[in-house]
Every structure is written in structure tokens, then in C-alpha cells.
Amino acid sequence: MSESPLVIHGRSSSHFTRVVTMFASELGLPWTLEVAPRLLSHDPADFAGHPALKLPTLLTPSGPVFGAENICRKLVALAGRAGDATLVLPEQVNDDLARNAQELIWVAMSAQVSARLLKASEGAPAPYLLKTQAGLQGALTWLDTRLDEVLAALPAPRQVSVLEVTLLCLIDHLRFFPSFPLDPYPRLNRFADVEGQRASAQRTVFRFDPRPPKDPR
Predict the structure, then answer these.
(1) What is the number of domains present in the chain?
(2) pLDDT tens, 23-69?
(3) d(CA 115, CA 132)
């Protein structure tokens, strides 16, 4: 593997991007962030060619790799650790409770983005916004109630799992962009406090990237 840093296209304030940068850090892979310039753009070029206008994208010599989960798989391969059982990807989880938890984490991450955009836009359809917020709250309640069982169901021993990284990024992002109080979820808060001490988490804390210079054209 080349020692050149991997180029990840995304934003330091994006929880989907942080999943990737944190996973790369766990694997000891050098990386650099190429900041997406305009989140509301309709131009795929502003998303490193992602046709669905989403973050993040991993830029490789053989072409782009779209999406956080997909990129995590690619990072494991680039690190030369394919088949390493201590790196728990979603397909290595066989317990239905843990699989359900991972699905709800992805759903909650997407719901948080939608809720923020809908809340910020004028004339947003109130029923859809309310349903999105209710779904996010329902996912968090389910995860908080079953967190101990979910973690116990993950393969062990492990260095890191996609489930734990995504859950930390979700909770930390809700703290970074408060949508509603997190006090009702004590287990999730304790989990984030502990996992947030990882070196990879400390390196990738949420922040706002400097605004890119305006295109003079």
C-alpha cells in the first residue's frame, strides 16, 4: 500500500464522513479531507462525482468509492487486513438484534440530516418533519433500551466495529447539532462518553470546516 494519504471527500461536520475518517484512523491509514464545497448543490462534481449528491466519497486511483459502509470495507482491504475478525463489518454480525441495531443507526443518521434540512427550510411539510423526528426518537429509544444486549452480541475479541463507530458518530452528532434532549438515553450517553476517548475519536471530533473561497466566475 502507498504511504500517500487517502483522499476522503466530505465534511468534518458530517457524521457519515466521520465514520470513514475514524475507521481509517483505527486502521492506521493516513488520510486527508477534501472538503465538499456546497451541500445543497445539484452538481455531482461538488460531491466528488457521487451521482446521488451524498457524502462521503473515497477517491482512489481506480475510481471513487461511495458511501460510509462501502468505504469501510475498502479501507480494510487497503490496510491489508481483509478477513481480520477483529475488524467487525456489518456482514460479520450474525445476531438479529445487532443487525437491527445497525439498521436503526443508519436510519437515525439519515433521519437527523433530513430533520435538520426540513426544519431549516420554509414551508417544509410539517407531517413529514414530525414523522422524521418521531422515527429518530423511536430509534434512539430502542437502541438505548437494548444497548447492552447489542454490544454483547457483537463478535469478540474485536478492535473496532462499524456498529460502534456509527453509533458514536450518531450520538456525538446529536450533541454537535442538538435536535432534541438526549437526557432520556443514559446508556447511549455513557457509551459515547467512553468510546469518545478512543484516539481515533479524538482525532476526528466534529467541527466546521473553513468556508471554501467563492468561485470568481
Answers:
(1) 2
(2) 999 999 999 999 999 999 999 999 999 999 999 999 999 999 999 99
(3) 6
pLDDT in tens, 149-190: 999 999 999 999 999 999 999 999 999 998 778 999 999 999
Spatial separation of the C-alpha atoms in residues 132 and 135, rounded to whole Å: 5
Same domain, 158 and 144: yes
Integer Cα distance of 92 and 69 in angstroms: 13
Whether 55 and 133 share a structural domain: no
Strands (E), the chain: 6-10, 31-35, 57-60, 63-66, 87-88, 160-161
Q: Which long-range contacts (CB under 8 A, 24 or more apart) does 74-80 make?
A: 75/6, 75/20, 75/23, 75/24, 75/27, 75/29, 76/27, 78/1, 78/6, 78/27, 78/29, 79/1, 79/27, 79/28, 79/29, 80/1
Per DSSP, the residues of 92-140 read: G---HHHHHHHHHHHHHHHHHHHHHHHHHSTT--HHHHHHHHHHHHHHH
Same domain, 176 and 100: yes
Q: Give the chain's largest Cα–Cα span.
A: 55
Q: Is residue 105 part of a domain?
A: yes
Give the CATH number of the domain where residue 70 resides: 3.40.30.10
The CATH number given to whatever domain includes residue 107 is: 1.20.1050.10
150's grid cell: 447489542
Identify which of 148, 145, 188 has the alpha carbon closest to the alpha carbon of residue 169.
188
- Domain of residue 130 covers 87-198
Q: Is residue 1 situated within a structural domain?
A: no
